[in-house]
Amino acid sequence: MNPAPLILELKGNSLDDGPGIRTVVFFKGCPLDCVWCHNPESKKNGVEISFESKVCVDCNTCMDTCTHNALSKGNPLFIDRSLCRLCFDCVDNCPAGALEQIGRNMSISEMVDQVIKDKPFFDTSKGGVTFSGGEPTLNMVFLGQAAKALQEKGVHVLVETCGQFNWDSFIELVYPHVDLIYFDIKIMDSHAHKKYCGLPNKTILENFKKLQKKYLEGGVTLLPRTPLIPGITDTRENLLAIVSLYTEAGVKKTQVMPYHPLWQEKNLKIGISPVITTEWAPEKWMAEERVKACEKIFMDGGILLES
Asked: Which end of the chain lies in a sparser environment, N or C, as judged by fewer CB atoms within 10 Å?
């Protein structure tokens, strides 16, 4: 519960992370370790360094700057992270911006001051601020105080969560200051969830059911979402199990998020070798007909799809 957690990015003018025009605050750090993570740079709690080869102009300034010999064109990933001391001298001296520090501390007042500049866009589009990640609930105190500060300024607050959080802390510190919750339901089988996401899903499902109950009783609006990962989450067996969960819990609407292959390129930037192309790691975007087939399973079960 670090009062000043690492912030990955403040992304303005977003149309994909909730209603209206939004500014997204991406937190760094996540309790899960999903093999397909579309924001792999957000997984670790600590600062990292990224290298964008397409931006590099081959000036060698970074290699001349590095006193630990951590940079080499002979290295397919360019940075030897066992030698890198994260001093970021190379970042400061890179004229092209090919090297970047990933993760920065930011106070609540600093964050609020930056995002509030977009309030005219929030007001005209019925948008607001979305807290995402990583997993924002790893920093309950900061998240709750930031959400409260924004609500007091008339800003709509949305939290995107994987659901792996402490219930009591969330309800006390965060829930009173949130207008909308996006909750990911990925895999119903607990063993498969642990295999592909790093942890069993017991806590996630318990938190979901309790939040859904509070929503039905007049609480914060809850929208469950499922990322469609080929061969893992998009199987008929898994989707039918999710539909069964929703039916039992009284869920009327959900959202699906089609797979995209851009996470592989993000992995390279932070020094992770490419994942071998498999059923769940294709190089192409998910075909529209496959997405439609997944959506049909929800609609056949009486669950509406939110666009």
From this structure: C
Check if the beta carbon of residue 18 is closer than 8 Å to that of residue 130. Answer: yes
Q: What does the pLDDT look like over 194-219, one tens digit per residue?
A: 999 999 999 999 999 999 999 999 99
Judge contact between 227 and 259, C-beta under 8 A: yes
The CATH number that domain 48-102 falls under is 3.30.70.20
Position 3 scores a pLDDT of: 54
- For strands 6-14 and 22-27, give the pairing: antiparallel
Q: Can you give the C-alpha Rg of the chain in angstroms? A: 20
DSSP code at position 176: G
CA angle 223, 225, 230 (to 5 degrees): 170
- The conformation of residue 40, written as its DSSP 8-state character, comes to G
pLDDT digits (tens, 9 = 90+) for 208-261: 999 999 999 999 999 999 999 999 999 999 999 999 999 999 999 999 999 988
Whole-angstrom Cα distance, residue 176 to residue 161? 16
Q: What is the DSSP letter of 118?
A: G
Q: Are 75 and 132 in contact (CB under 8 A)?
A: no
Which of 63, 61, 67, 47 shows the shortest CA–CA distance to 93?
Answer: 61
Four-way CATH pick for 6-45+105-305: 3.10.129.10, 3.20.20.70, 3.10.20.30, 3.10.50.30 = 3.20.20.70
268-to-61, 173, 272 alpha-carbon distances in Å: 21, 37, 5
Residue 1, pLDDT score: 43
257 alpha carbon, distance to own chain's centre: 12
Structure tokens at 104: 């920065």
